[in-house]
Amino acid sequence: MSAPFSGQEQGKELVDKLYRTGGLTKEEFCELIKKRGKETEKYARKLACQVREKVYGNQIYIRGLIEFTNYCKNDCYYCGIRRGNRNAQRYRLKQEDILECCEEGYGLGFRTFVLQGGEDGYFTAERMEEIIRMIKKRFPDCALTLSVGEKDENTYRIYREAGADRYLLRHETADEAHYRRLHPENLSLEHRKECLRTLKKLGFQTGAGFMVGSPGQTEETLAEDFLFLRGLQPEMVGIGPFIAHRDTPFRDEPDGTLENTLFYLALIRLMMPRVLLPATTALGTIHPEGRELGILSGANVVMPNLSPVSVRKKYMLYDGKICTGDEAAEHLSDLGRRIEKIGCRIVTDRGDYRKDIPQGF
Ligand code: 5AD
């Protein structure tokens, strides 16, 4: 381990450079990640919070998260709903249930719905098309985000033409060897990246992202993540701490930390001032004030859980996932109060990516 920057001046210079130029070299990212001390972290988080304010004011966007199936054909080593987990109780919501979640969410003030699920073969392109059309017809003033994994271009096109606006597909890691450490043979980083490029091409507001502290993550793999994000220029970036799930091969691996997650959130806000950046449920799970601290480090989105209460505990990506407290959609007013305590406020418009704000703002 190399010594921290002397007096942290060098760290602050790199943070400033990242904001000023929108990027760093791989070596600079590595150095910043490796050598930063508390002072550099504090500096980056504060600056990122100011940048968020400059772009979005005190507004925090909300998204209603509907976890509509936990069937998954994939066997990712980190994930609690991996195919190989025989202890998971599988469920899939019916169309009516999904629509009912949206109804409830709409009444609470949500104007974006996120349909998230495992890669479940039951939901064919045709079935998804029907669901998307149904939601967009019933709620024409709402944005619809999908998060259902890797599909072929045709399927993504069907989703898009049916009216889906946004798509979340974390790249998980941009480093080839690290990708192999997290995923079984049949999955590839190249295909994942290809999907992200296709989504952008089709006009989705696209989200990439990664877990913080996943097994095998290093300064170098993180530097690759930042460089990849810089190249892709996604409209959204989702990052949260890795949290071990007891029924996965990573059961004994240490969780990602609050400090690292907050620092990387800050770096992402500084590199991409306009990006839509959630303070994730995983961050709220590892610390009772995780979401607030995320916002104070540059995040500007929260995604309360709109799934039916009866299935929430079954969508367990990791141990201890919070789902019935202030992060639940039905407790939105409590979440709102918490956010007001840190000088921000929840807004109920669609919260689209702000293309209107000039680059380099
Ligand atoms: N800890 C934290 N995040 C996880 N995800 C999956 N498993 C875990 C875990 N054990 C994240 C992945 C995925 C997103 C839906 O949830 O990054 O893309």
Describe the structure.
- The protein is an alpha/beta fold.
- It is built from 14 helices and nine strands.
- The strands form two sheets. A six-stranded parallel beta sheet has the order 2-3-4-5-6-7. Strands 8-1-9 form a three-stranded parallel beta sheet.
- α5 links the parallel β3 and β4.
- α2 packs across α9, α3 packs across α10 and α5 packs parallel to α6.
- The longest helix has 19 residues.
- It is globular, with a radius of gyration of 19 Å.
- It starts with 8 loop residues before the first helix and ends in a 14-residue tail after the last strand.
- The mean pLDDT is 96.
- The structure holds 5'-deoxyadenosine.
Provide the fold topology.
Elements: H1 9-21, H2 26-35, H3 38-56, E1 59-62, E2 64-69, H4 95-108, E3 112-117, H5 125-138, E4 143-147, H6 153-162, E5 166-168, H7 176-182, H8 189-201, E6 205-212, H9 219-232, E7 236-241, H10 258-271, H11 281-286, H12 290-295, E8 301-302, H13 309-312, H14 332-341, E9 345-347
Parallel strand pairs: 1-8, 1-9, 2-3, 3-4, 4-5, 5-6, 6-7
Helix pairs in contact: 1-2, 2-9, 3-10, 5-6
The structure holds 5'-deoxyadenosine (5AD).
The site of 5'-deoxyadenosine has 12 residues, from loops.
